[in-house]
Amino acid sequence: MSKILSTIYPIADFLYLLQLEEYESKRYFNTIKRFWWRRNIQKRGKLVYTKRINITLALALPFCITMPPFTPLWIWLSNSVLTPYFERIKLNIQKNAAIHFNKYGKNTKVIAIAGSYGKTTVKNYIYEFVRYNYKTQIIPGNINTPTGIANWLLNNFDHSSELLIVEVDTYFVGEIKRSLRITPPDIALLTNVGDQHLERLGSKSNLKKALLEIFDYAKPNAIKICDKKTNLAYALKVAKILNIPNDIIKDTITKLKKPDRRGDVKIINKFKVIDQSYNISGDTAKYGVDNAVKLAKLDKKGLIVITAGIPELGEENKYANKKLGKYLVKKVHKIILLKSILYTEVINNSNKFILANNLNDAWKILEEYDPKKYLILLQPELNDLYYE
Fold this sequence. Notes:
The chain is of the alpha/beta class and 388 residues long. The protein folds into 3 domains: 2-86, no CATH class; 105-253, 3-Layer(aba) Sandwich (UDP-N-acetylmuramoyl-L-alanine:D-glutamate ligase), CATH 3.40.1190.10; 264-386, Protein-Tyrosine Phosphatase, Chain A (Alpha-Beta Complex), CATH 3.90.190.20. Helices cover 48% and strands 13% of the residues. Strands 6-7-11-8-9-10 form a 6-stranded mixed β-sheet. The protein has a 5-stranded parallel β-sheet with strand order 2-3-1-4-5, with helices on one face. The longest helix has 34 residues, at 71-104. Pfam families: Mur_ligase_M. InterPro entries: Mur-like_cat_sf, Mur_ligase_C_dom_sf, Mur_ligase_cen, MurCDEF_CellWall_CoF430Synth.
């Protein structure tokens, strides 16, 4: 019965698309044009029934049942109606968190990290360097939006903490400003200005403006860092500022590990794999390929790359997928190209390309190759928004 209802009323599928588009009505509206008559969309992920999804479902359901062909539209309208309500809730949470931290975090130094990429790695490295000398809290994982940071603080902040390490991200100019109103930093660090989220921000100029808020809204006497080249160099700079002893720094360096799926090396199906599957941009794709080529040469192996292309390209880097395809052909032995909606931009007439429908198919193709002879670079499969 549920399968029949899903075919007639694909409500869960379109709520899932809304969730993937992070409840942005404009982006969702553009997305549903491609998916209107599609069914069984949830293949690489699943809908999470959050409070917002449940309220949106309750509002849209009567219309979806009455006029099912317009289900995507009813969900869009429901979300549009509810967005101001949820925005007010988010702003109230942020305001309460700012009051809470101002009251209980007066003796806590804040280290805030922004940048197109490398934020989580730098955050984790800094924590490893400082945690033996300071009572330190780190906002974990990918909690890097104003509301995410606010919720974490209200539920987890230890008033006796001496250091708090925060990662901040942005989809629009003003978002980092909101985060730093909650936790204004004593040390503000910008890893880089790359090319991620350009489709959302519109231009490299807007991206730079958004990221530079890390300095604009830091404390007046904050230490500002943006002149280093590597993630480790940034972390070492902060360790020196905080007077971490050299013996602890040297010992910690030997134990540092990259966060999962940010270029860490692992064994998958007997292959040595460089896992770069967390996210990707034009900059990080090229950097990842260059590093993989070096490692493959050290191991005296050929290099095979699994990729689905680069998403969220703005007008300024719209040819990045074409450049990626050409770069891969020059650098690697084989490219297993997942058939996302981006694959036609990546592929060219080289015989190095092998097409696969999904990541599982890619691993089946690799059964024909010897793990002793090839190193694998795994780039993101991308989510269901990027497949027909």
